[in-house]
Amino acid sequence: QGREMPGQLPNLSMKQPSDKADNQTIATEESPLPIPPLLKDRNPDPNKAVFQLTAQNATKEFVPGKKTETMGYNGDYLGPVIRVRKGEEVSVKVKNNLDDITTIHWHGLEVDGDKDGGPHSGIQPGESWTPKFKIEQPAATLWYHPHPEQETGRQVYKGLAGLFLIEDEVSDRMDIPKEYGVNDVPLIIQDKRFNSDGTFQYDLGMHDVMNGLQGDTMLVNGAVNPFFEVPRGMMRLRLLNGSNASVYELNFSNNQTFYQIASGGGFLGKPVKMNKIVLGPAERAEILVDFSDLEKGETVQLENNGSEFMKFTAKSESPKEYTIPTKLTTIDKINPDDAVKTRKFVFQGMGPMVNINGKQFDMDRIDEKLRMNDTEIWEISNESGMGMMDGTVHPFHAHGVQFQILDRDGNPPPANETGWKDTVLVNPDEKVRVIATFKHSGVFMYHCHILEHEDAGMMGQFKVGE
Ligand code: C2O
Ligand code: CU
Ligand code: CU
């Protein structure tokens, strides 16, 4: 199961995206924003939840008149929203109706390694896998996606991903918009490249091998150019950067301010005022944005790096007035003095050579051994630039745990990074220290969440407990 170096990536060529004659940016008409449905819980007991997901091949029309081959959970693209409560016993039956092996990973969920859905939990075509776990962490916007060895990038790109929401007594009490699909709206943001026949382009040129696949067409919840009619009042948006590789810098076209209320692992201590948010691959953020100053019928665009990709039109009056809460939750800071160990993770290499601490992924090798319930500091440095050239940003992610950021190059993290996180952007030449307590046993992955880097081997394994 080892990896030959260098380079096992398919269709490796020197082509830049702009060289691709077949590559076209599609201009489609506006369409209403699709809202992923909430997945039905088949168990009436309020303390138990039973869900069913089927990974399947499908086709979908992104470009009018053309069929795109896709993959989806219970549908043609993306998957339904799994919503659970803290304390609930959850079981999910996952059926693989694809032609390829897949797995399903609960990104951000604190569960034991055998429930986590990493590359060891392969589900063969036609087979099912039914992990059962208890929800033991606070309200948060998590997500799920496949994680088969060397194929994560392709399967996520084809459409396999969905949201996993946790609610608890803190989110119950909070006076913020909660009506799913109305004023509490998920935005799964992705970028794709389409061939002129409408198919997704996933043949990796050199640029993609170096930087991960960056598209030229933005999708939100699977739609190109979507619009959404909002009440003239407060909206809660749950943002997921579901792209393979792109870092987004999001703002509204009228430059209006908004408040980040949650990072990947749950609510922040208090709302953070901003007018632009950076979201790396796999990162989530919940924001509150007040549209009450808009005229009736007025439109505001959501932009990435200055280009518009979806719009909100103020329609109805808001049925209720909200104010921005002054306090959200209490985050107990982990004391660095409690850490029994500091581990170093050096992200280095480029393209097919990307590695962590000089090693590429080997499913039969455990890279780090931890004891149950230990608190550790992990120091992640990005040496991909090697001091000579521009390196790549690497989003670091660890499975089965939520961490807190201690510092970035010795400086305290910005206010919107003072809560729980499972994925953190590490810039070229930067060193980020995070701290976590490892309360779940088993084998887990840590890796770069640029999926083409992960698939090329920028991933390792840690084992907690015996
Ligand atoms: Cu979002 Cu290892 O995964
Ligand atoms: Cu994960
Ligand atoms: Cu990377």
From TrEMBL:
Which InterPro entries did the record assign? Cu-oxidase-like_N, Cu-oxidase_C, Cu-oxidase_fam, Cu_oxidase_CS, Cu_oxidase_Cu_BS, Cupredoxin
* Plastocyanin-like domain span: 58-169, 347-465
Q: Which intervals of the chain form a coiled coil?
A: none
Q: Which UniProt keywords apply?
A: Membrane, Metal-binding, Oxidoreductase, Transmembrane, Transmembrane helix
Q: Which Pfam families match?
A: Cu-oxidase_2 (PF07731), Cu-oxidase_3 (PF07732)
Q: Where is this region: Disordered?
A: 10-41, 110-130
Family, similarity comment: Belongs to the multicopper oxidase family.
Q: What is this protein called?
A: Multicopper oxidase domain-containing protein
Q: In which organism is this protein found? A: Tigheibacillus jepli
